């Protein structure tokens, strides 16, 4: 979690690890029993939280609630910028999702706080205030989003919440009277919230910063983005925000007690150190008074001018240093920098890759070409090979870690493989074809997948949702050919025919499905929708009526216009509830506008 707020909802967004509490008990047996009880609480809560994190309905619900509470950012530039950054991170960064983790979903909401957060089910909520606060800088935004992705990838919130519950319940058990059997659940809830915000979140924000650094650099973003974002955040905390929920005035600077996050200056220093390590030790950034300087092997090469707010000097320095770090990381010798003199005795080097943009621009503007060339040449001449080997050995270990996660996913047991297939099917039901394709690809890669035919049928629906109608039909035909006994293979193909506009073929597959199982409500629902499109109201009514009865009169399965024919009383009740809800929404909107005008 990147925000500065101290909201109770942090229990869903926290990070891991805490210092174990000292347990005192009357005797050894009591201590063992107490420990066992707390461990059982932890295991049970962790199981529940991990299950929540692998629940597509919960993910979509979190998205809906975020939009309902905060609204969506209507600024096209904000949204397209974030979408582009997230897609680069998801497609290009080096990482693997655990088998019980969902693919990432995100929105830019309309909240103006400097905030972003990742929910347990890999839903990333990004406030418009963060995008604007970081001045739409894609490298700084990428560092924040990679930080949030790390929380999701490592399932930090599930583990933290479970540990906090166990920790605080253990503490309360210790303080209870020996004859008491009551637990103050309100007190426990408050203790858990505080424990996560202060004891658990703080240490592992650094873990997310580090993991985010490796994600963003592997995706091609400037290695200085994280430290620059922290410098910007530090300035925001100290000089801009007056929101008491963003900054606790009782917290003290440099003591890592800013709300539920470490001191941003400390985080900046650690991210700057990661940049130095990434450059194989060659590049450092130092703050001297109110000015940031970049050094190569201890010799100053660039001094960033302040130009007003100090964070602007930090940004220029970190992006200059980030370009140097990327080059030192990627190139094993001086010649690969491609230094050459062009017209006007100007020195050209590297490429026009955006990661080098600030480095090249400042070098040309300040005529630092010769100085930089000589410093780089000297660095390689006296480079300690052990430093480069040490860093790349660490990179190999990180790659091995991700390969291990990938292997665990492909070797998942039958139930986990089935869950991947079911998740893809649910994404299809939400119209999220691209997410369904991600999940079904993982399902097909699972060695213990027990229903390849149904996987193909689900992939067919996903392709059709994404507009690949020919690919969808090919998959659905193959699905039916492989297993003509599975009703869902026919229903999936019927849905594909439906989306292709081939309604007669769709109805034929539905008839086959009904002949296989007359008590499956999905067949009648899909049939009713097609009859409605054909204008055959009576047939549609009969189909929806069958669906309604089979779903135990669940009104949510039937279009309201048809529910009026099937169950007028229930339809009227729903219409009244919708009218009341709309009235309350309008009153709330009018009240909000009135307060703004005042």
Structural description of this entry:
- The chain has about 600 residues and is mainly alpha-helical.
- It contains 23 helices and eight strands.
- The strands form three sheets. A three-stranded mixed sheet has the order 1-3-2, sandwiched between helices.
- Strand 7 and strand 8 form a beta hairpin.
- The two termini are about 35 Å apart.
- The N terminus is likely disordered.
Task: Give a short summary of the structure.
By secondary structure, the chain is mainly α. It has helices at 28-53, 56-70, 76-92, 128-133, 138-153, 156-175, 185-218, 225-240, 264-278, 310-330, 357-365, 369-381, 385-410, 414-429, 433-445, 452-465, 469-482, 487-500, 503-516, 521-533, 537-550, 560-566, 568-597, and strands at residues 105-109, 116-118, 123-127, 283-288, 291-296, 299-304, 340-342, 346-348.
Average pLDDT number: 85
Largest sheet: 3 strands, mixed
Helix- and strand-based class?
mainly alpha
Oligomer: single chain
Tally of contiguous helical segments:
23
Helix content: 55-70%
User: Strand order of the main beta sheet, please?
Assistant: 1-3-2
Unreliable residue runs: 1-33, 173-183, 187-200, 247-261
The fraction of residues in strands falls at 5-15%
Q: What is the end-to-end distance? A: 35 Å
The total beta strand count reads 8
Topology:
Blueprint: H1 28-53, H2 56-70, H3 76-92, E1 105-109, E2 116-118, E3 123-127, H4 128-133, H5 138-153, H6 156-175, H7 185-218, H8 225-240, H9 264-278, E4 283-288, E5 291-296, E6 299-304, H10 310-330, E7 340-342, E8 346-348, H11 357-365, H12 369-381, H13 385-410, H14 414-429, H15 433-445, H16 452-465, H17 469-482, H18 487-500, H19 503-516, H20 521-533, H21 537-550, H22 560-566, H23 568-597
Parallel strand pairs: 1-3
Antiparallel strand pairs: 2-3, 4-5, 5-6, 7-8
Helix pairs in contact: 1-6, 3-5, 5-7, 5-8, 6-7, 7-9, 8-9, 8-10, 9-10, 10-11, 14-15, 14-16, 15-16, 16-17, 16-18, 17-18, 18-19, 18-20, 19-20, 20-21, 21-22, 22-23
